[in-house]
Every structure is written in C-alpha cells, then in structure tokens.
Design a protein that fits this description.
By secondary structure, this protein is an alpha/beta fold. The chain is built from 15 helices and 19 strands. The protein folds into 3 domains: about 140 residues, FAD/NAD(P)-binding domain; about 140 residues, 2-Layer Sandwich (Guanine Nucleotide Dissociation Inhibitor, domain 2), CATH 3.30.519.10; about 100 residues, Guanine Nucleotide Dissociation Inhibitor, domain 1 (Orthogonal Bundle), CATH 1.10.405.10. The structure holds 2-acetamido-2-deoxy-beta-D-glucopyranose (NAG) (2 copies). This is Guanosine nucleotide diphosphate dissociation inhibitor.
C-alpha cells in the first residue's frame, strides 16, 4: 500500500459513513476501514438472532416472535426531521436514491403523568389539552409570532432583536407558564436541558419553525421520517456514494492501529502488518481511546411488543419525549417505537426503545417512568453504554474523532457533530441550500 490517502476513516458508524461520503464527493481520496465484518459499528441494525446473541448469550429466540430476518433493530434508533439538516445532506448528495422513507406517525410529549400530541402550530395550540383556555390563547399568539418570524424581514420581529433577547425574556413577553415552556423547549425545540432559557431566543425560534415546517410536509402527526428497513440502510447508502466517487471500503480489518510521526501528527493506519499512509484520520472514539474522555453514560431498554405504545393514537411509529422536569430529572427521557409499518419487525410486532442519560448507579430503575408507558412487553433487554468525547487538538494531530451517540431519538445533535467535523476537516461549510420542495416531489415520501 504505497499510495497516500487524503483521509482514512475508521469505523462504519453513521457519522463516519456520512463523512466519508461527503469527503469522497469533495474529491478527496478516502480509505474506509472497519474492524468488524459488518457495516454500522455501534449504530448497526440487528436481526433477531443477533439481538439474542448480544443480550441473551447462546439461547435461541422464541419461535413466537417470528422470523429473525424480519427484524431490523437499530442499536442507535433515531428519527429524521423532514426538513432537517440530515435530509438536506441526503438530498444534496443524492443518497435518497438508495433509500425509501416513510413518515413517522406521531410526535408526543409526556406532561403531568400523561402522553399528549405535541402541538406545533397556532391551530394545534388551540386544540391541545396541554393548556387551559387562557394559556391556549397566549400560546397561540406566541406560535403566530414564531410562524411569522422572518430573519431577513424586521417587520416581523416586533421590535425584538432575537440575537440579544433570551428565550426566557421572549417567553415572558407572552406570559407563558412553566408547563407550556417545558413542552415548547423540550418537545418542539428539542433542547436537551434548560440552558436554552438563558441563551439568545433566535435558536429556539428557528428550532420551532423547523418542527412546524417539517410537520407541514405530511398529513401525518409528526415532523419525522424514517427509512424502511431501519437506519442500518444509511451507512451502506453513504458507503455506496463514497464508492461511486472512488472511495475504498475494507471491512473485517483487525487492529487498525493509527500511526504518528515524531511530532504527534498522524501518518497512517496499520492493519495485518500493512500500513496505509494518510494525511488525516476520521474515526469513532473506539479507534483512538487515548484521545477521548468519558463524559457520561446512556441507559436504555429495548422492548419487543405486540401493540403500539398506549395513548399514542395507535401510532405504528412514534417518538415520545419525557422532559426532565416532568420526571424530576436533569436529562430528558425518550421513547422510540417502530414496527412492521417501517419493515423493522414482522407483522403485528413493535420495537420500542426507552433511553436517557444515566444519572445514578442504577440506570435500570431510572428508566421506569418510560417503561411504564409501554404496557405489556413480549421481551425486554437492558443496556448501558459509556459516552466519549474527543479531547485531542485536531490542528496538531490531524485526527478527527466523533462523539459517542447521545440518548436522543432524533438526529439533530448527531448531524450537528457531523457538520462540525466536516468543517474542521475541510475548512469549509457544507452548502445545504437545496430546494426541499422540488426534491420532495421526486421522492416516495
Ligand atoms: C423573508 O423576508 C424577505 C425580505 O423581506 C423576503 O424576501 C422573503 O420572501 C421572506 N421569506 C418568507 C418565507 O416569507
Ligand atoms: C389520530 O390518527 C388519525 C390517522 O390515523 C388522524 O387522522 C388523527 O388526527 C390523529 N389524532 C390525533 C389526536 O393525533
């Protein structure tokens, strides 16, 4: 292997595959390796036998659950916002031609011990049982302000500079109560903690607009879409994209040792005694354990069920967000459910996830409020995994390490990490000004 690569990517997780696709399209010479003999790394999708091997040791799955190959259980389940950045990346790179998407049935929020549809527009605010009659009117006015807000048209700003005014101040102007602020911040704007309240309101307003605009693209009840056969399709679609642009893929490469010169700059990667030279390395935290630190732990449960999540309007695919305050916690909890309607389980079966950032030494107990919402389950598995973040200085060592996947069941934080990495690697921003309306006409979803 005498030739030098611009970039060697290690690990075929979602983030790494998106990056190798984007970098190949940019004309960089990319080699992509994985120590496993399958795509996806931590974000692989498993069939029933693989799921049993991972969580139950040698036992065979019960025949009552149906055929193993009808299952595609994402290890990192996430929905995509229909107008979100990831969908823009998919359209920008034309990866949509390798995938089929279907709208997600429901977006719900847990409030005062009950599950409610997330109201995203002024009309929905008026109908929502989440608020009393006077609060509904105040919320409606706020939703109209957000819907009409146009960054480049000061007439819509009502005299407020949202790059200076905090979210707390903006919400105070409309007199909304804490309960309303809680579902707006966590279930609509998808903030993961309450820091946004003291940050400029422009970010929250843009996130609310994204939710409402994504919702408007379908007749359905959620702003999300999800690929048929699960997210496992995504790394492979980006791998195909990379290959079209000259990228080389090698699975089942043991060791993948990153090599450095005397100044600590990366020079290549060695596997099976052969070193491939490169200028930069992109990888997940497991390939450079000396350059990352543990920042937290995700706790989760995976359930196989024979019914949809109760109180979600019979949604065959759904996200339920349980805001931290509703549970007396510091971090939100997420429910994700998908089924045979997205071809991830046999007819009549549902796959549900409950996940959160662990805050105690007994994460399984922490998940209880989420698990209680599922109703009876056929099978349930528990798992924790550590989260890592890079601590290296990429400008010194040319190593670009992704952060571990967080507990969220949507893509917003994942894709932000990918785009930041892209900018660090290439020194430029990805131009994502694609015409979504033209694109959607040409697609299935
Ligand atoms: C936002 O305002 C600008 C400037 O007035 C205008 O050109 C643009 O069409 C507006 N966008 C929307 C979505 O109304
Ligand atoms: C429940 O789902 C049906 C379609 O399946 C939809 O027409 C209706 O608006 C939904 N109701 C709520 C409250 O989301």
């Amino acid at each position: 292997m005498d030739e030098e690569y611009d970039v060697i990517v290690l690990g075929t997780g979602l983030k790494e595959c998106i990056l190798s696709g984007l970098l190949s399209v940019d004309g960089l010479k990319v080699l992509h390796m994985d120590r496993n003999d399958y795509y996806g790394g931590e974000s692989a999708s498993l069939n029933l036998i693989q799921l049993w091997k991972r969580f139950r040791g040698a036992d065979a799955p019960p025949a009552s659950l149906g055929s193993s190959r009808d299952y595609n259980v994402d290890m990192i389940p996430k929905f995509m916002m229909a107008n979100g950045v990831l969908v823009r990346v998919l359209i920008h790179t034309d990866v949509t031609k390798y995938l089929s998407f279907k709208a997600v049935d429901g977006g719900f929020v847990y409030n005062k011990q009950k599950v409610h549809k997330v109201p995203a527009t002024d009309m929905e605010a008026l109908k929502s049982p989440l608020m009393g009659i006077f609060e509904k009117r105040r919320a409606r006015k706020f939703f109209i302000y957000v819907q009409d807000y146009n960054e480049s048209d000061p007439k819509t700003h009502e005299g407020l500079d949202l790059t200076r005014v905090t979210t707390k101040e903006l919400i105070a102007k409309y007199g909304l109560d804490d309960n309303t602020i809680d579902f707006i911040g966590h279930a609509l704007a998808l903030h993961r903690d309450d820091r946004y309240l003291n940050e400029p309101a422009i970010d929250t307003v843009k996130r609310m607009k994204l939710y409402a605009e994504s919702l408007a693209r379908f007749q359905g009840g959620s702003p999300y879409i999800y690929p048929l056969y699960g997210l496992g399709e995504l790394p492979q679609a980006f791998a195909r994209l990379s290959a079209v642009y000259g990228g080389t893929y090698m699975l089942n490469k043991p060791e993948c040792k990153v090599e450095f010169d005397g100044e600590g700059k990366v020079v290549g990667v060695t596997s099976e005694g052969e070193t491939a030279k490169c200028k930069k390395v992109v990888c997940d935290p497991s390939y450079l354990p000396g350059k990352v630190r543990k920042v937290g732990k995700v706790a989760r449960a995976i359930a196989i069920m024979s019914h949809p999540i109760p109180n979600t309007n019979d949604s065959h695919s759904v996200q339920v967000i349980l805001p931290q305050k509703q549970l007396g916690r510091k971090s939100d909890m997420y429910l994700f459910c998908c089924s045979y309607s997205h071809n991830v389980a046999p007819k009549g079966k549902f796959i549900a996830f409950v996940s959160t950032e662990a805050e105690t030494d007994n994460p399984q107990v922490e998940l209880k409020p989420g698990i209680d919402l599922l109703g009876p389950v056929d099978e349930i598995f528990f798992e924790n995994y550590d989260r890592y973040e890079p601590v290296n200085e990429p400008s010194l060592d040319n190593c670009f390490i992704s952060a571990s996947y967080d507990a969220t069941t949507h893509f917003e934080s994942t894709v932000t990490d990918v785009l930041n990495m892209y900018t660090m690697i290439t020194g430029k921003n990805l131009d994502l000004s694609v015409d979504l309306s033209a694109a959607s006409a040409a697609e299935e979803y």
